[in-house]
Amino acid sequence: MDVYLPIANMSVNGLVIVALGGLTGILSGLFGVGGGFLTTPLLIFYGVPPTVAAASASTQVTGASVSGVFAHSKRKGVDYKLGGVTVVGGIFGAGLGAVLFRFFESIGQIDVVINILYVLMLGTIGSLMAKEAWETINPPDKEAAAKKAPKRRHHPLVTALPLRWRFYRSGLYISPLAPLILGLIVGILTMLMGVGGGFILIPAMLYILGMSASVVVGTSLFNILFVTIATTMIHALTTQAVDILLAAFLLIGSVTGAQVGSQIAQKVKPEWLRLALAVVVLMVAIRMLLGLLYQPDEIFSVTQL
């Protein structure tokens, strides 16, 4: 089923795009991440220009997050107060990211910037995930690992920030500047790369803010939902790089995939899931690195006229 994408100026197989959206949805249901960190590079591999891939991927990440937020909300797994602070930071970050996007686009380097960011991000995240998952599966000392239960605490930098608010559902008494800055960083990345930001939010919420694990995934999805909505609107108004047909096909797959992912998560050990995801992430990073090192026969870029 071929579909013509007017913004990308190309024809694609609609079933392939739906399948890519389904992969994003599965990741959202499994790990509480938006999944855009894999959708965008996969679209690029398929031939979609990086600017269109990044802008359109953020649209379908929104759909993949909706059902997840509702599911976690029913079991009181969302800290709306802390999530609201990160959303405010994320919206400002999206605006700043739009300025950076237009700048790199104006000098004809936005495609290269997106690819480099993905190589650095996926390589780092994949390596850390693989190391953590492997150590969980094969701990050097199983008895010591079983006894080891690190106490949840804030990062020293968070403790040093002025002002303090109580976030009761997360069990925190910290400065709102910490989640605000975290949201700002995620907003910039969402705008530039079309990612949801859950791969940064979740570990940062756990190990920097010291949040309760019971609300981390739901709060991450809450932030992703609203920041990706803002990002899509900004892209539509400034870069005009959002392809509605591409986003629609991705959305169909992502909504279905989110339900599948939530079912798989209940049956498979989480450490094996993390290891499998780490391997996929590293493979994508290597493929994107090779794409940067080898010059294609035809060089093109999407620029604003």
TrEMBL record:
The places in or outside the cell where this protein is found are: Cell membrane; Membrane
What is the membrane topology here? Multi-pass membrane protein
Q: Extract one GO cellular component term from the record.
A: plasma membrane
| Keyword field | Cell membrane, Membrane, Transmembrane, Transmembrane helix
Database matches in Pfam families: TauE
Q: Which residues cross the membrane?
A: 12-38, 82-104, 110-130, 172-200, 206-229, 241-260, 272-294
Question: What PANTHER family does the entry give?
Answer: MEMBRANE TRANSPORTER PROTEIN MJ0441-RELATED, MEMBRANE TRANSPORTER PROTEIN YTNM-RELATED
Family of this protein: Belongs to the 4-toluene sulfonate uptake permease (TSUP) (TC 2.A.102) family.
Protein known as = Probable membrane transporter protein
What lineage is on file?
Answer: Bacteria, Pseudomonadati, Pseudomonadota, Alphaproteobacteria, Sphingomonadales
